[in-house]
Amino acid sequence: MLAWVDEMAKLCKPDRVYWCDGSKAERKALTAEAVEKGILIKLNQKKLPGCYYHRSEPERRRPRRTVHVHLHREPGRGRPDE
Q1: Which of 14, 22, 35, 48 is the least buried, fewest Cβ under 10 Å from its Cβ?
Q2: Does position 61 have pLDDT exceeding 90, yes or no?
Q3: Are 24 and 37 in contact (CB under 8 A)?
Q4: What DSSP string runs through 11-48?
């Protein structure tokens, strides 16, 4: 496995290679880093302890492709100004 990872790293040229150990300490550190960077957003920890919100590529949101559902409109009709 080490040889394969080394080969893939040479091919893909990542900024870094990180080996997960699956420990609770690692989870805590990675979660804290993700919250700090805005990748994860803490939800109400009193109501939902240990729960976070994650958006994939939030900076690439495409409003024209977003479907809004309104109580007084047909679902899937797009934005109100369309």
Answers
A1: 22
A2: no
A3: no
A4: HH--S--------HHHHHHHHHHHHHTTSEEE--TTTS
